[in-house]
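Q: Sequence in, structure out?
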Amino acid sequence: MTEVMVVMCTFPDGEKARQIGTHLVERQYAACVNLLPGVESIYQWEGKLCTEAEVMAVFKTTRAAFAQLSAELKVLHPYDQPEIVALPVADGDAGYLRWVTDQARP
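A: Exactly. Output:
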């Protein structure tokens, strides 16, 4: 198990995802963010079935930086309840994992 985490979060559009993703990388709460357009989300919200086109952001961060990344994401995100799901990275290329831990700092 490494200290690296992958955090997923959906956004209503690419512009907002890019703006917030850039901010979080500049602050070094994340080493990198990948923006995946063309995501279709189907969910229930406040008793209604919803289908939305969204952009998925995949952040690479560390366990130590996750609390700050999550808190900042909640403040900046346009949704009332943003999706913030963190997954631990069990293993990976040692050089890449070292780069992530060097870049993402609390």
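The longest strand covers residues 48-62.
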